[in-house]
Amino acid sequence: MASAQEREAFDLTPTVKAKVVQLRALDQALETKKKRSKSQELEDQFAFECTARKLPPFARQYPFAKQMKRNWRFDFAWDLPRTTEHRPIKVAVEIEGLVMMPAMVMGKRQMIVMGRHASPTGIKEDMVKYNVATLLGWYVLRFDQTLLAKGFAIDLTMRVFHRMGYKVAS
Asked: pTM (2 decimals)?
């Protein structure tokens, strides 16, 4: 591997330098794509299923509680006005990114839960967020990755829309 001084010794033309910059950017993009988490893939699958099942258009990373000077977001949100066919609909779906890892605890192999949503501070912050959302009129559905993968999340979301009077377009 060449040292920094050895690399600087090469006098590359501007065209070659530009190509090197492009190749590095492409390499970084590929690395980022490889690092896409299982959670992101499942969220994309959930978005696809919502569209395929003809739910109304949704927003991803929907900001709410701005009037309370909070920067909270829902992973998925439907904020639909009243129509002649249904009452106003405010449904949010949160995908909780829990990380399960095997570990030895007191000499026994157990699964431990890690991640922001599993820490005491994260749990308390989520409680405040979801309770404020309820006060603002939101129905908040919370799922973990396994519930997305099993199809439970889309099925329950469909049931909530049906219960609120929304008719799926055919």
From this structure: 0.70
